[in-house]
Amino acid sequence: MGKKIEKIVAMKGVVTQCLSNGMFRIKLENGFNVLAHLSGKIRQNYVRVLLGDQVIVELSPYDLTRGRIISRLR
C-alpha cells in the first residue's frame, strides 16, 4: 500500500463575508461560494484578511464547498 497523491485545486476568489474563528465565505471566479479557513502559514505570519480581499483558496477534491486560504493577493 503506497500513499496516493491527492490533487488539490487552487482557485482565486473574493472574501464576501468574515465569520467567527477565522472562517470566511469566499466567492470564487467561477461563481461558486465556499467556506474557507486560514492556513497555518497565514496565521503564523499575522496576515490580515478583510472583506473584499482577493485570495487564493485550496479546495479538496472530496468536498468542493470547503477550502483553505493559502494566500492574499495584493
Automatic annotation (TrEMBL):
Alphabetical list of NCBIfam families matching this protein: infA
Single GO term (MF): translation initiation factor activity
Main location: plastid
Quaternary organization: Component of the 30S ribosomal translation pre-initiation complex which assembles on the 30S ribosome in the order IF-2 and IF-3, IF-1 and N-formylmethionyl-tRNA(fMet); mRNA recruitment can occur at any time during PIC assembly.
Name of the protein described by the UniProt record: Translation initiation factor IF-1, chloroplastic
Cellular location(s): Plastid, Chloroplast
GO cellular component: chloroplast; cytosol
Record-linked InterPro entries: NA-bd_OB-fold, RNA-binding_domain_S1_IF1, TIF_IF1
Domain S1-like residues, every copy: 11-74
Pfam families linked: eIF-1a
Gene source species: Scotinosphaera sp. NIES-154
Gene3D superfamilies xref list: Nucleic acid-binding proteins
Top-level taxon in the UniProt lineage: Eukaryota
Encoding gene, per UniProt annotation: infA
Keywords, sorted A to Z: Chloroplast, Initiation factor, Plastid, Protein biosynthesis, RNA-binding, rRNA-binding
CDD domains xrefs: S1_IF1 (cd04451)
Role summary: One of the essential components for the initiation of protein synthesis. Stabilizes the binding of IF-2 and IF-3 on the 30S subunit to which N-formylmethionyl-tRNA(fMet) subsequently binds. Helps modulate mRNA selection, yielding the 30S pre-initiation complex (PIC). Upon addition of the 50S ribosomal subunit IF-1, IF-2 and IF-3 are released leaving the mature 70S translation initiation complex.
The family this protein is said to belong to: Belongs to the IF-1 family.
